[in-house]
Amino acid sequence: MGRPFEEPLPNLSIARTYSAWYFVEIATLDLAPIGVGRIFDLTGSYSRTMLTLIAPVGFSFACLLLSAEISRRAGHAVGTYSVPSGN
């Protein structure tokens, strides 16, 4: 049995994956100003609003570092995979 991530996932469409990512990106850019305005209306302070928005960014960064560390300990090169040989 090969190492995990040695072969790409079956039925994975790059176009479909990219379009899903792009949809989420555009939705985030569209909804973020509304969310920031609502948080400001509730708190009355842009300082609290910015702290509220920075917390998820910090959490995402921590998850990224944890994922990279887990992958490193498992012996995988982060962000790489090999193409199957076709057999």
Question: Could you name the key traits of this structure?
Answer:
87 residues, mainly alpha, flat
Q: Overview of this structure, please?
A:
By secondary structure, this protein is mainly α. It has a domain at 15-73. The chain has helices at 14-43, 46-73. α1 (14-43) packs antiparallel against α2. The two termini are 14 Å apart.
SSE blueprint and pairings:
Elements: H1 14-43, H2 46-73
Write a brief structural summary.
The chain has 87 residues and is mainly α. The protein has two helices and no strands.
Counting H and I runs of at least 4 residues, what is the number of helices? 2
Count every beta strand, where a strand is a DSSP E run of 2 or more residues.
0
Low-confidence runs (pLDDT<50, min 5 residues)? none
| Main sheet attributes: strand count, strand direction, barrel closure | none
Structural class designation: mainly alpha
Measured distance between first and last alpha carbons: 14 Å
Q: Would you tell me the overall average pLDDT?
A: 77
- Beta-strand residue percentage: under 5%
Report the order of strands and helices. Answer: HH
| Gyration radius over CA | 19 Å
Instruction: Name the helicity range.
Output: 55-70%
Task: Estimate the global geometry from the Cα principal axes.
Answer: flat
